[in-house]
Fold each of these.
Amino acid sequence: MDGFRRVLRYAAARQKFFARKLSGFRVDQVHRPEDLGDIFTTPEDIRNLPAEDFLCREPESVFETTGTSGGPKRVYFGYDEVDFSARYEAAAFYENGMRPGDRVVCTFDAGYWISSWVTYLACRHLGVFCSAVGKPQPAEVYDRLANYRYNVIVADPTWLVSLSEIAEKKGSFPVKLIFAAGDRMTDAYRDYVQRIWNAPVILGYGSTEMGGGAGMECAERNGYHVDEFNLLFEILDPDPDGYGELVVTTLSRRTMPLIRYRVRDITRFLDGPCPCGTTVRRIARIRGRRDEMVVMGAGNMYPEIFEKVLCDVPGLSTNWQVAVRQEGLHDILEFRLELSNGISTSAVEDAVRRNLEARYPEVWANQVCGMYRLAFRFASSGTLVQGRKCKRLVDERAE
Ligand SMILES: [Zn+2]
């Protein structure tokens, strides 16, 4: 809270955007984030306003992040801030068993993304060998695994799956740890990758706005221990289970501090101590994006629900979408699926219905009592091509 008050006073004095937002507030009377009421920084603010509105000192680097719509968001840093963020990622790596003598290959997309750099610098802090090589074809890295004796892999989930498919055919190498972040890793992906490499897959969570890493799992693999040293977390408008939108304030950055930034991800705090002994707080796996939550006859729907329903249905490609439509006065939950290997549509429908009933009985019960209807639309493989961050769940009902 002390860090919060310090960055608040700093931003009130130096950040045009926040100073404008604060008009009418006495900053010396703000002690906790909640005291700011409905004052937030949103992704749209960062995307649409000039950088000068946010910069409090001369920047030394910039990273970008893309969303489902609109242009990139640009976040500026000093060298010291990127390096400082890497210290805490290094602590998380260490906690999970990374040690000098290990050899890391990191294949996070480089370009204007921050994660590759933070991982590289984290390895420097640990004195660990690291190749941060952008995002090459998995086959290129596979061919080098033996040569460079990599025993730790840091990569996006889908990239890891591709690498593992090669290893399944050609043989795997001794790997100690695998770290994944960047997009969503389903349990089915994780189980597959762990089986192929016989190594634990540890998930990280973060974003450019949060300075790269914001949290990482421990050996318990139950939620992310978050970086409370540099970030102050809030859960906005929690539901009865504690799930709400994650809001974060950057405590240590001074180039472009973000006050109460609306992350738009839905999660909750995990109460109680973690069996691993680490005392920093945990948040649950991300349930979905706030802008992808759809309230409908089936209940509050998140993309995660459909990932869990579709993950082990045979004959589906990874391109799929679920749409909420309206017919008359009724909600329709429409599965748009690509079939890959000649499976019959009725077999797929049956499997989806069975999974929904077994895994989300309340969602299923709402269907049985007529709150909504299920529908299916099938396409042949490759026709549902979507963007880099495709929307898994869309609401197409009239306003
Ligand atoms: Zn733990």
Amino acid sequence: MFKHVLDKVSKEASGEIALNYVAEISRHHRIQASPGLSDAVAWAVDAFKANGLEAEVHSYPADGRGYAWSSLMFKEWSCVDAELELVEPQEKACFLARWRESKLSLIQRSHPAGPVTAEVVHVGKGEEQEDYRDLDVRGRMVLTDGDVQRVHRLAVEERGALGLIYYGTWVREPDTPEGELDDALKYTSFWWAGGEKPGFGFVLTPRRGRWLRGLIKDSKRPVRVKARLDSSLYEGVLDNAYAVIRGTTGEQVVVVAHICHPQPSCNDNASGSAAALEAARVLQKLIRAGELPRPRRSIVFTLVPEMSGSYAHLAARESEIPGMVAAVNMDMVGERQCVTSGSFIVERTPEALPSYVNSLMECVFKEVTRDVKNLGGSSSYALFRHTTTPFSGGSDHYVYSDPTVGVPCPMLIQWPDKFWHTSYDTLDKVDPAMLKRAAVVSATYAYFLASAGLAEAAWIASETFAREKARLLERFRDYVERASADPSDVPRRLGELKDQATYWAEVATKAVESVTRLAPGDVALEEAVAGFMGDLEAEAKAQVRAVTQTLSRVLGLSGVEAKPYRRPQMRKLDREADALVPVRLFRGPWSVRGWDVKLSLVEQDELRRLNREHPEGGSVGTLAMYWTDGVRSLYEVSERVRLERGSTDLEYLVGFYRLLGRMGLVGLGHR
Ligand SMILES: [Zn+2]
């Protein structure tokens, strides 16, 4: 159905043109709400226009006070120059950090400082009160590899330290082992919520930081640095680049990519912005030349500061949201995989927002995985790594795909990238062939959806049905495999099978049902969809019977004496959570920055402890947020999370939701 579009788009699209866009964007230092970001956005708008699109800058107040839904707007920040110089011991005197060498040598959003000369004290991580026992940091610079916002609070706000010198980095097994980034600067920023004492800091590479730490340890005299930082935070603007290919109706399809991040940040995310620009150029050219008919729905391109720009865009256009049929988010799509180590991922929408768009995206993506043929020429396959994953979040699709917004938005991303958020994310890590794939997939996906009518809807319904059915079968297969691995666990698996099956069937049928959005009121489509839905439900029931038979036999033959399964009694915590009915007080995902300051210091520590002790809490919390509909109890929300991701964390959710309630992001009703 889309092959003729894909062929034309593939012929026109150029990875090299997209790579030129990456080079242009990466020249700018693109901190959310900064002159560099505005320059990049202005450049992108010009580029859209040069390619024949209608385009403009959308500006929003960046005053550090206003909100877009629950998202606190940043203050605009600019930096002219900054230096950190080691002055004592004199024989070691040298520059430690210079803005002109790398924009990453500074903690972003630092307040102005100096020139000032001060002693350096090493505080280790500096995240706990104990780290400061027997240390006097007042009037001194603290050397740390801990969380800078936390160290700012403990060292600067509570103990009068002057500023920070940070030398931490990422360690992620297996792609980014210890030492891999020893000579890279990590992207580090203050995320001011307002009301904090002003602060500043510099960033050193881990190797340089350890050297300085050693110098402090070994030197008989104090180690002193001279710091100077010429920056300002002020009420300014947050800019989005907006471009549109007009359709013939009021509906639209959105292509979003974040254009922010420090200079150069090529893969993250000059690459996504560049691929979106190339997709726009290609479609505009083909439509103007009459090779593709003008679509019925508009195709909107937004290049935004990550999340904050999407919040601002959507909050300012609530009346347009019902007409947004679907979106796609492009994030880190240009990676040279042999160097950066990741895989190209199609990330699905959350299961609280099941949609046919996942099937369409998978189907289109498959077309760019035919790089070479096997020896006999009987099949073709990719020369790069790729996969499909469930929703994970962390980028602009997190805002669009929130059920309170309701614009289904898969994401194209490459992950992991060992150079992510460091000074090593440079142009040589970007592969034009990858940029081209991303541009082709997003252009084809967006154009297909923008022009989809009855015939396309009929096809995508059957495609979604087939793919959801395959997925359903795969889930049951996996269930049997896992349960068979441990026969003593089979009774529990059998006991939980029905609930899990009902949930899977619901997600699959809703995905198929969502196709009716493309042609509302068409009776033939509704009938076809109802047939597919009935088939999926019947399949799930048949699978429950088959799986029950198989697992019962596995258990019987295993010789394991397993106790019959009894549904666990509700614990005290379960009952407590079942009495709470959380209500979301804002449209769009809750954004905690700016709200956590409403907590007492004890509560802020509680939030920190929760996040530290529950490493999966963030992921559980995001999915729980999507299931929170004002009707389900928190216990029921947590059970939905369990069904979606295989596990949940009610203890975390109870603690977290109580704090969300205290912050004013969630209302907590009782029943
Ligand atoms: Zn990023």
